[in-house]
Amino acid sequence: MNHPSGPETGPAIEICDLKKEYGKGRGVFDVSFAVERGETFGFLGPNGAGKTVTMRTLMGFIRPDEGDARINGLDCFRNRARIQERLGYLPGEIACMDEMTGAAFLEFMARMKKLRDRTRMNELVEYFELDPARRIRKMSKGTKQKVGLVCAFMASPDIILLDEPTSGLDPLMQSRFIDLVLQEKRRGATILLSSHLFEEVERTCDRVAFIRAGRLVGSMRMDDVRKSRKRVFVITFADAATRDRYARAHVDASPQPQGAASVEVTVAGNFDAFVKDLAAYDIVDLTAHEQTLEELFMHLYGTMEKGGSHE
Length: 311
Ligand SMILES: Nc1ncnc2c1ncn2[C@@H]1O[C@H](COP(=O)(O)OP(=O)(O)OP(=O)(O)O)[C@@H](O)[C@H]1O
What we know:
alpha/beta, Rossmann fold, Alpha-Beta Plaits, 2 domains, six-stranded mixed sheet, four-stranded antiparallel sheet, 11 helices, 27% strand, elongated, disordered N terminus, disordered C terminus, binds adenosine-5'-triphosphate
């Protein structure tokens, strides 16, 4: 296993008051968070929120205007060569080396990482059912993503940064990716994963932070997210009279204008009482959707208006 040099105490990843401004309010502003050793940390946010800028700062590709980014206590910009060699990194877009075949690119990356044993690399190629013989230019987005994933994981690094890791992957490969992250967690790797998909974050992360318009809205333990998330049910009754009887007994239920005899109810946690109570009414349909993570963060920290992306 590779060990990025530097002190092995304190958080593996630390961002403190990070600011990188691109004008017109774009960029990241006052972002601070830390990822503990062995932790999988989800970095969620809509397009243009600042996830990639933060990841690239951690890789030492971007010099912050203010604040700092540290990995194993080392400043990411000053120690970028060492960091880039030792960390596992999946960029948001894999656009370089287009004329190389996937196999030649993987070999090139393995040499850069001074990888002596190709066993893990070959296992990952098989695991993701990657055909590395084609030129990268001719590969689909999903196939390129697999090349990137093999590169990120092949040296079994202690710290792995993944920028939107499942974009372009089909559902089977998304689920293989999730299993791989769970394996790497068991190995003790520290993982920072940026995403706008709640499911992959929910299934893999111990903690999640939400970023929006370049600012961190808040962070939470995943266990607390699960407890705090509400479900919104739309109940359709057999007729309007039944709906009215339900609405009189439940002041929180809001009648739906479009559904003739429907109401919308938000339920947090107490599903047993909710379902038992419903049994007293004649119901023809029941649908549920989970509060999105964005809705949850906005509800808990709700200081910003809807929208918020600068893209
Ligand atoms: N080199 C640059 N020049 C100008 N603006 C930039 C540059 N890099 C990033 N930005 C801007 O900074 C903001 C944050 O971008 P970033 O790529 O980090 O978003 P993101 O959260 O990764 O979004 P996505 O999910 O779309 O990848 C955006 O408004 C973007 O346009």
